[in-house]
Amino acid sequence: MIHLVQERGWGHRFQIDSAGTAGYHIGEPADHRSAQAARQRGLELPSRARQFVRADFERFDYVLAMDTANLEALKRLGGENVYLLRDFDPQSAKGSSVPDPYYGGDRGFEIVLDQCFAACAGLLEHLSR
Questions:
Q1: Beta strands 82-84 and 63-65: pairing type?
Q2: Domain enclosing residue 121, as ranges
Q3: Comparing C-alpha atoms, which of 3, 10, 6 is closest to residue 46?
Q4: What is the CATH number of the domain that holds 76?
Q5: What is the percentage of the chain residues whose pLDDT exceeds 90?
Q6: Alpha-carbon torsion (17, 78, 97, 4), positive or negative
Q7: Half-sphere CA count of 15, side-chain side, radius 13 A
Q8: Residue 100 lies in a domain
Q9: Would 27 be classed as within a structural domain?
Q10: Is the pLDDT reported for residue 22 higher than 90?
C-alpha cells in the first residue's frame, strides 16, 4: 500500500501501518520469504510486528483484515471501520481472504503480494472517488 500511495504522490495524505490481532510475533521483522518476494519487486518491508490495539480504530479511517477470522476478531473489539482487504479488489469474490502463505512454498508469498497489490489498488480507486 505504501508503494502504491507514494507512486501516486499521495504519501503525505495517508498514515499506513500494519498490526496483527495476535501478539506472538511482536517486534519481529517480516517473514524472510515475504521480505524476499517484496525485494524482488523492488520493495522493502521495514516494519516490525505489533499487536492491534483499540486505539487503532480512532487512528485509522480504514482497518483492513486479511481474512475472515481476523475480520471477526476486529469486529469483536468494537470496530465499525473494519473491512476485508480483498473486498476492494473488483476481480475478487466478495468475502475472499488473503491466504496465509506461511506453511506453503515460496510461490505462496508471490500470490499473496499479487492479491494485496490488486486489493490496495482497488482501495485507492475507491478512495479517489
A1: parallel
A2: 15-128
A3: 3
A4: 3.40.50.2300
A5: 92
A6: negative
A7: 8
A8: yes
A9: yes
A10: yes
